[in-house]
Amino acid sequence: MTRAKHFLEETGGKPQNQRKVLGICAKHSITVLVGSWNVGDRCPRLDNLPVWLQNQSQHGVVVVGVQECYFKTSSSTSCEDYWWKIVLDSLGPNYKLIAAHSIRHSIRLGVFVRDVFLPFISNVEVAHWVCKLPVGYKKGGVCVGFHIYDTPVCFYNCHLSAGTGIKNVVERNRNMRDILENINLWGSEVKPYIAARAVFVIGDLNYRLNLDSETIMSYIAGAKWSELYKHDELRTELEKGRAISCFSDIVPKFPPTYRYLVADPKDDVVPNERTYCSARVPAWCDRILFKESFQSTCRINSFIACDTVMSSDHSPIVCSLSLEAKHLVEPVSNRTALFSFSLTFEKLYIEPRLAENSEEQAPYIDTLNTLPEPGALIGCRILGPRLSVKPGGSPVVCKRGEKIWSFGKNELERIIFLTPMSEEVFREQHLEVLLYDYSNPERSIPCMGQTVISMHKYRLCDATSSNMVEFAVKEAYYWGGVRQGTISGLGYISSSRIQ
Fold first, then answer.
1. pLDDT in tens, 362-404
2. Where are the alpha helices (DSSP H) in 103-232?
3. Is the pTM of the predicted complex or chain greater than 0.70?
4. I need a labelling partner for 424 at 20 to 30 A (CA). Which of 276, 290, 365, 395 fits?
5. 282: helix, coil or strand?
6. Phi and psi (nearest 5°) for 440?
7. 437 burial via Cβ count (<10 Å: 0-12, 13-18, 19+)
8. In whole angstroms, what separates CA 207 from the centre of its chain?
9. CA-CA distance, 309 to 307, in Å (whole number)?
């Protein structure tokens, strides 16, 4: 069963109209609280929620993701409705639930916004992807995306395949790839983890520690978190570029959150007396990862586990962070210089990443190597907000043995920014690049990878010069969150003043 709820109009937030002129880029720092918990299909004690979502009054946005959240309630209220009610009661009257999404009766994601920020929230959308058997009926991911001011942000709550061994590691990587590649928001071809300026993946990702229980317990006893982290599967997969390599892990500096013996919620328990289950190897299954861009920075303030919450075999985790959001507004006076901008690429080079031919990498080969067959037709499209572009130029034939493809002026259209804007606002613009392999008849134009070219990154201090400004591009492109190669080349910006 899939349930989605949108509350934006009820809470007063209205979609922001497209402005005709953009002259000022205002910056706002917003504190965000992100929590994840595998509830273990048990109804938690009500006094557990304030312990988990602590100091929530300091935050403008609170994001709550849970897994295995299905239990009987004492009333006729559904588990989902009851869950969001007790979370909202814990947060207090100053918060409103702007979106909630659930799949498979257990994976739930909700976003709560403090009332003072509601007028600046727009474009709220939800989506999901359900992992196929034999992963298990409770695995998949839900996603909520929205704009705060003019900054798109996105949150994924995931529950990935369980189990130990390399086979299950590969399956978890595949789960994450499929979730990222099959979720779409905002009516765009560009995946939200590429298009959003700040992206977070939370949940029970189920990555384990490659050590025996005795060694892990000795590290825990000595609080040697850095040493223990060296043996973490997720760290290894990120480092090797085999899973969600465009994300950064928030390194845990607390005991593994799984698997504990469960305390009866009705009992009074003494804090800090959690005991690991001897039948399972402890692991940091519960994680929070983030992806930031040059247009939005993220500062981690704290990241903790709440070991005094004992109703589940997982300890909940919570992260407090500060997010910089941008607000593009009309100029307050006619003194602001406004320009029309256009951009041309002399040539773009696409260099795919070749999978390492080794026994170690063999199980991961399907996620690492997307090099098309000889004779393939490779296409490139450039999209983006406030752009006027045609559907794309001519595909390029991939010649036999060719490892680098190039697109020239004949294949790439001239890019025109429709909205008159100041140089300050222009530096906040970005281009979305999509690569396609048109030669596979069994699939409808499969995407080989996507990336973003940010004007801010290249520090175009002379963008309003009377002459064309040259800048060199070099970006990694991704498919399913995994880096697939590099796109590079030369671009030229021209401008004309209109005010």
1. 677 666 656 677 777 888 888 877 776 554 556 787 776 677 8
2. 166-182, 192-195, 213-221, 225-229
3. yes
4. 290
5. coil
6. -85, 110
7. buried
8. 18
9. 5
